[in-house]
Amino acid sequence: SGRSGRFPLAPMLFDAVDRGILSGEQYRGQWSDVGTPERLEILQ
User: Fold this and answer.
1) Fewer C-beta within 10 Å: the chain N or C terminus?
2) Residues with Cβ < 8 Å from 34, sequence gap 6 or more?
3) How far apart are CA 40 and CA 1, in angstroms?
4) Cα–Cα dist 33/44, whole Å
5) Contacts of 17 (CB under 8 A, 6+ apart)
6) What's the N-to-C CA distance of the chain in angstroms?
């Protein structure tokens, strides 16, 4: 959308859903937050 700086994410996501370019699903398996190398190392 060409935006820069801080702005709310939810309106952009809802717009994408309405336009059919974003969807999601529920994952029922085990999930771990491995967002950093340190977190991944802790889980290994």
Assistant:
1) C
2) 40, 43
3) 33
4) 12
5) 23
6) 38
Can you give the pLDDT at residue 37?
96
**Which positions ≥6 away from 40 have C-beta within 8 Å?**
34
Kind and range of the H or E element at 14? helix 10-18
Q: How far is CA 13 from the centre of its chain?
A: 10
Q: Which tens digits make up the pLDDT trace of 26-41?
A: 999 999 999 999 999 9
User: What is the per-residue pLDDT for 17?
Assistant: 96
| Averaged pLDDT for residues 12-26 | 96
